[in-house]
Amino acid sequence: MSWAFLRDLLSGVNKYSTGIGRIWVAVVFMFRLLVYVAAAENIWKHEHDEFECNIKQPGCENVCFDHFFPVSHIRLWALQLIMVSTPSLLVVFHVAYRENREKHHNQKLYKNPGKIDGGLLCTYLISLILKTGLEIVFLVLFYKLYNGFKIPRLVKCDIKPCPNTVDCYISKPTEKMIFLYFLVATSCLCIVLNLGELSYLILKYSIKCYLKRHMKKQQ
C-alpha cells in the first residue's frame, strides 16, 4: 500500500500549523506512519496463516480466527491513521479557497491566506476537535473489539464447526503486544497534543478579543 498521499497531506498541513501542530505532524509521520510501514505491517502480514489450533477440523481455525480477530489490528491501525489525518484537509481546502478567492477578485483580500484567523481559525478548531474525537473513538474500538489492549498467547475456542473446546495459538504475541502498546501510547500523545493546541488557540483568541475590547474602551 502506498502512503505517499498521506505524507503529502501532512507536509501540506505543516505549512499552516502552529508549533504544537507541527509536533503533532512529526509524531504522526515519524512515530506512526514510518513505524507502520517499516515494521508493524510485516509483523501482522501472515497473522491468519500463522494462527494455529490443535485440531484440523475443516473450518475450525477460520471461524476461531474470525471470532477473536474480527478486524485485523494492522488494518484498523491503517484506517485510524487515514481517518485522524483526513480532518486536516479542511484546513488545506480553506486556505485553497482563500487563495482562489483572491485570484478571482484579482486583489489582496487577506494579509496572509494561511494565517489562522477569522473563518480559518474556526475550521482549524473543528479539525482539531474531529481529530481528537476520532483518536478516542478508535482507542475505544480497539478496546471493545479485543477485550482490552492485550494479545494473549493462547485462546480457547468452542465455536462450531469445532467439535469441542480447542486451543488456538497466536504467532509472535510478545512482539505484537509491544507494537500495540506503542500504538496506544502514540494515540494518547496525539490526543494530548490536539487538546493542548486547541486550548492554546482558544486562549490566544480570547486574550486577543479581550485586548481589543479593552483598547476600544480606552479610546
UniProtKB/TrEMBL annotation:
Identification of the protein by name? Gap junction protein
Output the Gene Ontology cellular-component terms: connexin complex
Query: Biological process GO annotation list?
Result: cell-cell signaling
User: Primary place of residence?
Assistant: other
What GO MF terms are annotated? gap junction channel activity
Query: InterPro entries of this UniProt entry?
Result: Connexin, Connexin_CCC, Connexin_CS, Connexin_N, Connexin_N_sf
Coiled-coil regions, chain positions:
none
Q: Where is the Connexin cysteine-rich domain?
A: 134-201
Q: Which residues cross the membrane?
A: 21-39, 77-97, 118-143, 178-203
Instruction: Describe, as the record does, how this protein assembles with itself and its partners.
Output: A connexon is composed of a hexamer of connexins.
Localized where? Cell junction, Gap junction; Cell membrane
Membrane topology term reads: Multi-pass membrane protein
Residues of the Connexin N-terminal domain: 42-75
User: What's the superkingdom here?
Assistant: Eukaryota
Q: Which gene underlies this protein?
A: Gjb7
Job of this protein: One gap junction consists of a cluster of closely packed pairs of transmembrane channels, the connexons, through which materials of low MW diffuse from one cell to a neighboring cell.
